[in-house]
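Quick one, T. Sequence first:
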Amino acid sequence: MIEPDGLSSSGGAPVNDPAVVHEVQIDEALVTRLSLIEDQPLGDRAAAFAQLVDELRAHLEGTDGEARRPGA
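Structure tokens:
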């Protein structure tokens, strides 16, 4: 947990300390897909991001993706 003074409650280094290296696992397929979406015209890009959000939500919620956002 991060305290108001910027220190972690575990007594470690400040969370925003540049000396602290955070490991990040990158999903190359997602990065590639995002890059392809960014290259699309604005209208197509918005639809592609909406579809991606739906897929990520379904994955996180453990559904098969059948449930859609209202109005989608």
